[in-house]
Amino acid sequence: MENIGLMLMGSITSLAQLFIIGICLYYLIKKPSIEGWFLLLPSLVMLLMRLCNMIVVPILFQKQFITPDYWSVVGPLMSLIGFFAEIIFGIGLLMLVNKVIKKGVV
């Protein structure tokens, strides 16, 4: 029962990530710009990493394809990639906010 609860919580956060990706795609289609790419690509990376951690990694542990020692190296590397993806997303968001403020829309 605990596993089901954890999977549901992970699914809810994945739905939020899909919603963000949808908004980024919509913005990129309406106004192709570097800000759109800086928002979309990190969102895709984060979604893929989340799905990998939710689905692929537990299966690989069950089948004993990866060991905890191996994951102690790969896990932090994935976290580092996620960190840089979040930084790039933040830069894109700041660029978008700056663009909107300069236009005087707000």
What would you say about this model in short?
The chain has 106 residues and is mostly helical. Helices cover 89% and strands 0% of the residues. The protein has helices spanning 2-30, 34-62, 68-103.
Per-chain topology:
Elements: H1 2-30, H2 34-62, H3 68-103
Helix pairs in contact: 1-2, 2-3
In whole angstroms, the N-to-C terminal distance is: 47 Å
Low-confidence stretches: none
Q: Kindly provide the radius of gyration, computed on alpha-carbon positions and rounded to a whole number of angstroms.
A: 17 Å
Element string (H = helix, E = strand): HHH
- Overall shape: elongated
Major beta-sheet overview: none
> Percent range for helical residues?
over 70%
Q: What is the average of the pLDDT values?
A: 85
Strand content: under 5%
Helices and strands: which structural class? mainly alpha
Q: Report the total helices.
A: 3
β-strand number = 0
Descriptive overview:
The protein is mostly helical. It has helices at 2-30, 34-62, 68-103. The radius of gyration is 17 Å and the shape is elongated.
Core attributes:
elongated, 89% helix, 106 residues, single chain, mainly alpha
